[in-house]
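Justification of computing resources. Each target in the renewal requires a structure prediction run like the one illustrated here; the chain below, 178 residues long, is used simply to show the kind of job we budget for.
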Amino acid sequence: MTTSLLFNKPFRVLSQFSPDPGKQTLADYIDLPGVYAAGRLDFDSEGLMLLTDDGALQARVSNPRHKMPKRYLAQVEGQPDQAALETLARGVELKDGLTRPARVSAVDEPGWLWPRDPPIRARRQIPTQWLQLEINEGRNRQVRRMTAAVGHPTLRLVRIAIGDWTLGELRPGEYRIL
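Resulting structure tokens:
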């Protein structure tokens, strides 16, 4: 029998079980032997991760050729105009090539979202905007690089879905067995 779980990775937690001096890892939250992360989530990003001991499932989630969609909420600096949103939707030219098209929309700040500790830096003169982005590839820091490329650096990034799996009611540091 396989074991798979959904985990809400807190801010500033490494997406690995191996210890790293001075940093929290998945081992600080999950005490189930044999499960491994299906894909990664940056140290400074938050949200949904899938962990499993099923190698085929892990490959289906993490290998870009399967085009498993991943949905994010990104709080960006400034307020992207329609041209910036269209550029994100068409694909953005990054140093490692053109990204696949993304589904993107400006959204209101989610009322259900937990406060981040520490909070993002707020600047009185520069507004922020929340975007919902769905991508189906997983380059290193891709969403952050995409928003920066259109002039709106990401201040906070929360993954809310992987394929049909969603964050749901999971609070930071919580997991549920599938």
